[in-house]
Design brief:
Layout (H helix, E strand, L loop, with lengths): L1 E5 L10 H10 L4 E4 L6 H8 L9 E2 L2 E8 L2 E8 L3 H7 L13 E2 H10 L3 E4 L9 H4 L5 E5 L5 H14 L2 E4 L20 H7 L2
Parallel strand pairs: 1-2, 2-3, 4-6, 7-8, 8-9
Antiparallel strand pairs: 4-5, 5-7
Length: about 200
């Protein structure tokens, strides 16, 4: 099982990086991605504190960036990014700030591309009308998210097939501040392999 959408205290989560890695290890997840809002500080901490041994599975470097498209506030997940490059690109007033209005969608996509990553539209069920505005520029859609109804998930799966997009998902776990649990979507390892093989 994998969970590709997790938050720590480096944005609006309540779990420390150590706690997150230990919890995912306890749950025997095979792959995860920490996707803090506008921050890669979790990966800085993992590196500086040598926390790699706390989680035995695969760690996909990720981030959730705030963006706007035609006045609509959306969020874009960047996966497989070079976090050192990304750290230099995020404006200082945006780092770790989940309430930041965000950069333009085009700017965010450019940042992810500069960092050799894949751009995925996060939880589209929250802004369905924005999907058609970005679908030709993104690499994937977060189909498996609690905010997407079963019916809407089927629609998103069809869109992904039609546009040859990566299908992702995750719990969007924030710790005690929100009710959803890590691995609530029970996603297969193949979801991580899309990035590992891409």
């Amino acid at each position: 099982m994998v969970d590709l959408h997790l938050h720590t205290i480096h944005s609006d989560g309540t779990a420390s990086v150590r706690e997150m890695l230990a919890l995912c290890e306890k749950l025997k997840l095979k792959a995860i991605s920490i996707t803090d809002h506008n921050s890669i500080d979790a990966y800085k901490e993992i590196e500086s504190e040598n926390l790699h041994g706390l989680f035995g599975g695969k760690l996909l470097v990720g981030i959730e960036l705030s963006a706007t498209v035609q006045g609509i506030e959306i969020e874009i997940l960047g996966y497989g990014i070079d976090w050192q490059k990304m750290d230099k690109l995020i404006p200082n007033d945006m780092k770790g700030n989940c309430h930041h209005v965000g950069l333009t969608f085009q700017k965010v996509i450019g940042m992810i591309r500069q960092c050799d990553g894949k751009a995925v539209l996060a939880h589209p069920g929250r802004y369905k009308h924005a999907v058609e505005l970005v679908i030709d520029k993104i690499d994937g859609i977060e189909v498996y998210h609690l905010s997407n109804s079963q019916e809407y998930r089927q629609h998103l799966l069809e869109l992904c097939r039609e546009h040859n997009l990566i299908i992702t998902g995750g719990s969007d776990f924030h710790g005690t501040s929100e009710p959803q649990l890590i691995n609530c979507e029970k996603l297969p390892y193949e979801m991580f392999e899309q990035f590992a093989n891409g």
